[in-house]
Amino acid sequence: MCLLKRFNREPFTFNFSLFTSHLSLFTFHLSPLTSHLSPLTSHFSPLTFHFNKLDSILKYFPDLTDEQRRQFAALWDLYADWNAKINVVSRKDFDQLYLRHVLHSLAIAKVCAFAPGARVLDVGCGGGFPSVPLAILFPEAHFTAADSIRKKITVVEGVAAGLGLKNLTPRCARVETLPERFDYVVSRAVTAMPEFVGWVWNKLEKGQRGTLPNGILYLKGGELAEELALTGKRWTLYDIPQYFDEEFFETKKVVYTSR
121: which strand partners? Predict the structure, then answer.
């Protein structure tokens, strides 16, 4: 005998109220999960952003240690915070911080690598360029960042503390008044070269504490022949485009003379 089960073909009704109540319950239980994930993703996003900004540095300095990468990445937030209080980097090009300020400072490193123990003076350091990036790159050299404007030194102090830089000493002083002597003097377009040489020449000691003999390494652009001739010194000009290929550096140079 064949037994057949008979299904009642009653009309299907959808209980919308019951469905929405279950959906609400599901969303309620899911919310704590997404709230826990949200802070996690917020921590990763800035990290990714800052390391993407480092591309222009890593392109030319691929052998940075993890600590150096961390310090270079931290520059963005530190300068953004300080620049909102004390304007040391032009706000119109702050998004070019790594190219126009950090990488530009590091052009000096392509010309001369400072040896451990080298004493380097940054004259008219402003917000810390070129001394802060160079201090990150050469942790065993010692840098003195000097500027006569107190608020600029306040920024350098804050940035150095935020980075944990132990090899950089900010000084609010005119360079002529500093009693110390140095192996190298670095600077970035502070004044005309004859005046600059007059400020720093007697601060330099003879010798060699890097890949070049002790002397002046100055970041400058434009036509320099007449200005340099007035110093009475012998200069070597290093075109930055031979090291960095960005258009920004097209007319920029590292100017060097030995003590």
Answer: 144, 185
The span from the CA of 53 to the CA of 99, in Å, is 9
Question: Tokens standing for 122?
Answer: 């940054």
Q: Please name the residues in contact with 78: beta carbons below 8 A apart, sequence gap of 6 or more.
A: 158, 159, 162, 163
Mean of per-residue pLDDT scores for the chain: 86
Burial of 22 (0-12, 13-18, 19+ CB in 10 A): exposed
Q: Tell me: the pLDDT tens digits for 203-255?
A: 999 999 999 999 999 999 988 999 999 999 999 999 999 999 999 999 999 99
Q: What is the pTM of this model?
A: 0.80
Report in angstroms the alpha-carbon separations of 94 from 98, 102, 203.
9, 11, 33
**pLDDT tens per residue across span 138-158:** 999 999 999 999 999 999 999
Question: What does the alpha-carbon distance between residue 211 and residue 115 come to, in Å, rounded to a whole number?
Answer: 8
d(CA 54, CA 69): 8
